[in-house]
Specification:
The structure is a single chain. This protein has 357 residues and is α/β, with parallel strands linked by helices. The chain has two domains: 222 residues, Spore Coat Polysaccharide Biosynthesis Protein SpsA, Chain A (Alpha-Beta Complex), CATH 3.90.550.60; 122 residues, no CATH class. The strands form two sheets. Strands 1, 2, 3, 4, 5, 6, 7, 8, 11, 12 and 13 form an eleven-stranded mixed beta sheet that branches. It has a two-stranded antiparallel sheet with strand order 9-10. Helix 2 links the parallel strand 3 and strand 4. The chain is globular and about 55 Å long. The chain starts with a strand and ends with a helix.
Length: 357
């Protein structure tokens, strides 16, 4: 790994870590939005994952004050952000995807949030759709019992329910502020996920440890979405999402919790399979399942399972299960609100809530 660049300030409030892979134009727009921030006591680290475009040349030419960590190959999201987090000196680390435009008062609002919620361990930002700015792209993360996360408010119009700060299950790592003490407490992002679901894994570990996440409604960013991978439903995204969904449950669900959630897990997995068939991506779905259920993968993630759950009591797992169920209710309420906006029926979701929640 090659390191270059200078530090913006000797005592920054934030370290901003941005992973990048062949995203020169988007990255430039993101950095420009940071240069316009009303609060400027921060430093920026870009972690480049073996880009073959002119990302590194652009950074050296146009952004000499940005620190650059450069890998010769794509090591994945988790490895990239972990490198930036470990290099950071500030007590708070803001993770941003490279396809973000940061509203000019965002960092100031984050600073205010740290003061208003001194017990918070991490914060979720308010994400808007970059192209349709009246639509949300996320307002804190929830978790489904099927082993995946859900960005609350996604594809909904911004409304009253998202105009106040509130506790939430977790944060989307594409735009989240983490305290250093959280990583010291629960560990870093799991690099064996490579990309996708790694933030759900971190949210789950944080919840099990009793960490506190707060959604800050005034900390706003605009997100292009899937700009690096190309689209939301490409083969890589489907394969990795499917694989890591199973890996997450093997790693984090003990037997009792798995049995408690089994009906919801079966329903989610069937719906995901039908969705992939409908979108014409059955083959990458199948490859993801095969990779997750390979002996090597099962051994790897079950060893992590044993390591992290060895001293967790049944009562702690019961409370965690209750928290996941409550989070799923919140996610379903958000899905139903979006479907209502689009004039679609929620009959099946109401039946699911009545039967399983």
């Amino acid at each position: 790994m090659i390191s270059s660049g200078d530090i913006l300030t000797d005592n920054p409030s934030f370290e901003i870590v941005i992973p990048n892979w062949n995203g020169a134009k988007m990255l430039g727009d993101c950095l420009n939005s940071l240069s316009r921030q009303s609060y400027q006591n921060f430093m920026i680290t870009v972690v480049d994952n073996g880009s073959t475009d002119d990302s590194l040349a652009m950074l050296a030419r146009d952004y000499p004050s940005v620190r650059v960590l450069s890998y010769p190959e794509n090591r994945g999201f988790s490895a990239a952000v972990n490198a930036g987090i470990r290099k950071a000196r500030a007590p708070w680390i803001l993770l941003l995807n490279n396809d973000m435009e940061v509203e000019k008062n965002c960092l100031l609002k984050l600073l205010n949030g740290m003061v208003d919620f001194p017990d918070a361990d991490f914060f979720a930002l308010k994400m808007y759709n970059f192209h349709e700015r009246e639509l949300l792209d996320g307002a804190g993360d929830a978790m489904l019992r099927g082993g995946v996360g859900y960005r609350l408010g996604v594809m909904e119009h911004d409304g009253e329910r998202y105009r106040f700060d509130r506790l939430c299950f977790g944060a989307c790592a594409g735009a989240a502020l983490y305290s250093r003490r959280l990583f010291e407490r629960v560990g870093y992002f799991d690099e064996d996920f490579f990309a996708y679901v790694e933030d759900v894994d971190l949210n789950l570990r944080a919840a099990r440890a009793g960490a506190c996440c707060v959604f800050l409604c005034e900390a706003k960013i605009y997100h292009i979405g899937s700009a690096t991978s190309g689209s939301k439903f490409n083969e890589l995204t489907i394969r990795l999402s499917t694989r890591n969904n199973i890996n997450l449950m093997v790693k984090n669900y003990p037997g009792l919790l798995f049995l408690r959630f089994l009906p919801a897990i079966i329903i989610y997995q069937c719906m995901w399979l039908l969705f992939c068939i409908k979108k014409g991506v059955f083959v990458p779905w199948f490859r993801g399942v095969c990779e997750a259920l390979s002996p090597r993968s099962l051994r790897l993630f079950y060893s992590k399972h044993n390591e992290q759950l060895a001293h967790v009591s049944r009562e702690e797992l019961r409370l965690l299960g209750n928290r996941i169920v409550a989070s799923e209710r919140e996610a379903i309420a958000s899905i139903m609100a979006r479907r209502n906006e689009n004039g679609r029926s929620n009959r099946l979701l109401r039946f699911y809530l009545k039967l399983f929640c």
